[in-house]
Write a structure and sequence with these properties.
The protein has 338 residues and is an alpha/beta fold. It has 14 helices and seven strands. Helix 1 crosses helix 3 and helix 13 runs antiparallel to helix 14. It binds guanosine-5'-diphosphate (GDP).
Length: 338
């Protein structure tokens, strides 16, 4: 799905050494090994690896941005991997190359990833037109999301023209994925009450498309859930005046409704591209990302500052005991950053 982009000025890329030049050339040629190696570099916590990763991404930047970025969310068991496998195979049949990434906050605790697991998408993972990468498993949610964003760019440079980013149905990671994709899709079960859960979490407000899965089990229940969901959606303010999130029913297991789903994704782009909203969303996402990186960078500089480290404990105690005001303590600590 090629997208026309305006010419824009780019930062001149830094000089790369031979190893990194080979990575860049390999990724641009669509080779999977250099792609995987670049992602390993991105996910590394070593400072020198991070510097190299940034240089490689910078060199790849002109080749990014050409994919449709699709976020998929839903509680465990809703059918995300079944759906992504069916969708991925359908898209490959249509001539696309599909990358599947994941943002799984629990992986930072368990050290492993429950999402994006190759064994969960057996057919897709064996297909040479697919690339499946589990969630990075180190760092905060913000860190995991940042690495997934960068991985997405590298996949785009490698010629994947659909990038699917999967996440579980917990609020923060969904916001992170909605903030890096063009269209954010929420998978729901056809049970009554499930929709209320989503409303409570505020997730429906960020969903661009809602899918009731497992419609094969009870078609009438799925239809009921669909109309409940539609009326619930009327209570929300949507991001675009030109797009009311559609609610569809499908069966990932029986591969029914997959083509209709993709037709809606394309319609989303076709409606919001001419109004400028599609590109504006990406611009806002890029700026928001920059600010997130600034915020987290400032936090770590603050925490690593030797004078802050020396004064933090006594000042915290003073605030707890009420002998110093929180504002005075904060001002004193922040002054060390000057
Ligand atoms: P995930 O945890 O959201 O990735 O969910 P899975 O894709 O692993 O699916 C959980 C279970 O639901 C599996 O046993 C699937 O076979 C089943 N499942 C997924 N989609 C459907 C569907 O459309 N219909 C039915 N009947 N079962 C489904």
């Amino acid at each position: 799905m090629p997208m026309n982009r305006p010419e824009r000025q780019r930062e001149s890329a830094p000089e790369l050494d031979a190893v990194d030049r080979a990575l860049v050339d390999g990724v641009l040629a669509g080779q999977l090994r250099p792609l995987a190696k670049t992602i390993t570099l991105i996910e590394s916590t070593r400072d020198d690896h991070q510097v190299r990763a940034q240089h490689v991404i910078q060199a790849l930047l002109p080749a990014t941005g050409n994919a449709m970025r699709v976020g998929i969310s839903g509680v465990p068991g809703v059918g995300k991997s079944t759906f992504i496998e069916a969708l991925g195979l359908y898209l490959i049949e249509q001539g696309h190359r599909v990358a599947v990434l994941a943002v799984d906050p629990s992986s930072t605790v368990t050290g492993g990833s429950i999402l994006g697991d190759k064994t969960r998408m057996e057919m897709l993972s064996q297909n040479t037109a697919a690339f499946i990468r589990p969630s990075p498993s180190a760092g905060s949610l913000g860190g995991v999301a940042a690495k997934t964003r960068e991985t997405m760019l590298v996949c785009e440079a490698a010629g994947f023209d659909v990038v699917i980013v999967e996440t579980v149905g917990v609020g923060q990671s969904e916001t992170a994925v909605a903030g890096m994709t063009d269209i954010f899709c929420l998978l729901q079960l056809p049970n009554a009450g499930d929709d209320l859960q989503a409303i409570k979490k505020g997730i429906m407000e960020i969903a661009d498309l809602i899918v009731i899965n497992k419609a094969d089990i009870d078609a009438r229940a799925a239809q009921r859930a669909q109309s409940q969901m539609k009326s619930a959606l009327m209570m929300f303010h949507h991001a675009s005046p030109h797009w009311t999130p559609p609610v569809m029913t499908l069966s990932a297991l029986q591969k029914q409704g997959i083509a209709d789903f993709w037709a809606e994704v394309k319609r989303y782009r076709d409606v919001l591209k001419p109004t400028g909203e599609f590109d504006a969303k990406r611009r806002h996402q890029a700026l928001a990302w920059m600010w997130e990186m600034i915020d987290s960078g400032l936090r770590s500089r603050f925490r690593d500052n030797p004078r802050v480290r020396a004064e933090l404990a006594p000042l915290q105690a003073a605030v707890e005991q009420g002998v110093t005001t929180p504002a005075a303590a904060a001002a004193r600590l922040l002054a060390h950053l000057n």
